[in-house]
Amino acid sequence: MTPSFNPARYDLLSIRIAVACAQHGSLSAAAASSSLALAAASRRLKELESSLGTPLFERHRRGLILTPAGHIFVRNALAMLQAAERLGGELRDFAQGVARHVSLCASSAAISEFLPPLLARYAKLHPDVRVDLEEQMSDSVPAAVREGRSDLGIFVEGVDAHGVETRVFREDELVVVLPRAHRLAKSRGPLAFASLLDEDWVSLNTGAALLSKLQQAALTANRPLKLRFQVRSFDAVCHLVDAGLGVAILPRAAAQPLARTMSLVLRPLGEDWATRRMLLAMRSGSQDADVHALAAFLMQPSQNAKASRSKRQ
Predict the structure, then answer these.
(1) How much is the pLDDT for 111?
(2) Which of 135, 175, 214, 252 could make an S-S bridge to 266, C-beta 3.0–4.6 Å?
(3) What pLDDT score was predicted for residue 306?
(4) Considering only CA atoms, which of 215, 230, 264, 259 is closest in space to residue 244?
């Protein structure tokens, strides 16, 4: 029988049970997590598989293992459940006076350096609008906006931004992050990137605009980038550098507060690309008044105070 799926024929509880089975590898654990009797959970799972025309799990003595069809189902079921949770949350917010949700995805740098105080102020000025923020790598932000998964996006310039309208949001400064005992920690003047290519490097994961820039610069210098560690956050980068496991380049505003709590030294980077721009993206032709209002607020020149203070420190 050819597998088919008509969402109108299934309740969310049956879908949740299938997802829980995949997560726990056990029907009894899935039933317990759903507050159902084992027999009821088993019946729902069998009915779901029967209606799909294909098994989602292989049954073994030690538990359940996803079939190839099960992997497809669970991946999409998770998206469905998350959408249902968002729907419920927005309806609850509406009942409490929140008239609109605006989604914003942003790079780690934008969140670390600029967004928290801005969004806090916007929430006070517009209590009827809730901004939902999601952190993403810069290279995925324009696509999220273009495909309608986010109303606005903020990312570091240099990635593919076709299909969205962009404007300059802020500028930031990149600096070299070194352990205090490093041979270059007491050097005077900006450090050339090429002088650091014999070092082991710590960087963010693939997809980060900063990593792409480092790799491009190493390629231009005709030298390999000895990338030893890739992690998800600026905090993790600094901890690894502090442990003497490599050097890094990070935005000054993000690295400065971390350097104060660790044995780190920040040195200027003597490259033209040490100053970079962040762009704010919106879907082309968007007429949404709430989205435009948030974009206009974020773009106000008076909101640059934090960045200016950071560069003077």
Answers:
(1) 94
(2) 175
(3) 46
(4) 264
Q: What is the DSSP string of 12-59?
A: HHHHHHHHHHHHHS-HHHHHHHTT--HHHHHHHHHHHHHHHTS-SEEE
Instruction: Report the SS3 class of residue 253.
Output: helix
Contact 105, 135 (CB under 8 A): yes
Provide the token pair at 170: 């802020």
The pair phi, psi for residue 188, each rounded to 5°, is: -100, 145
Q: Give pLDDT, residue 182.
A: 95
Neighbours of 183 (CB within 10 A): 9
Q: Is residue 176 helix, strand or coil?
A: strand
In whole angstroms, what is the distance from residue 202 CA to residue 247 CA? 6
What is the pLDDT, as a whole number, of residue 100?
A: 75
* Residues linked to residue 177 through DSSP beta bridges, in sequence order: 248, 266
Cβ pair 92, 43 in contact under 8 A = no
Neighbours of 237 (CB within 10 A): 26
Q: Which residues of the chain have pLDDT under 70?
A: 1-10, 86-99, 301-313
pLDDT for residue 92:
66
Euclidean distance between CA atoms 313 and 309, whole angstroms: 6
DSSP, res 271: S
